[in-house]
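Technical note accompanying the year-one report. For the benefit of new consortium partners, we illustrate the data format agreed upon in the data management plan: each record pairs a sequence with a structure-token string. No post-processing was applied to the example shown here.
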Amino acid sequence: MSKVYSIKTVQKIPVSLDTAWEFFSKPDNLKNITPPNLGFNIISKHHGEKMYAGQIIEYKVSPILGIPLYWMTEITHVEDHKFFVDEQRFGPYSMWHHQHHFKAIDGGVEMTDIVHYKLPLFFLGDIANTIMVKNQLRNIFEFRYQAVDARFGKWKGVVNEVVFG
């Protein structure tokens, strides 16, 4: 049986909680913080501009050899200016649960992402995680750090934490 893996990342951003929430709670902004080589595109027509519980968002993403895959997520929980959760309904993972937390701190916002995921194909999924998926997710979050820094400015001092479990 395939294992459930986790990732936790923390990034400090020198903006107000309102500014951070305004940006990250708009689904259309996700493309701006996703590596271009993944071919990420939102294809849903009725997902709305603002995030809400029950919202369905559909994507095409090409994580392997440029082959496009369909991915559907649902925003299952939203607490305004605090957190939201997206869960995969259809897509490349057996399970995908992604928490996005926002907390006002002196000088800005601390943004924490916690992802739990499971790959299909039992032990083959575990092998794929070791060989490719874990590194690909690390690269996605590293790109995100850089994109957020470029958009909002760099935090002074130690800022980022990435923990795989």
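Partners are asked to follow this layout when depositing records. The chain has a mean pLDDT of 91.
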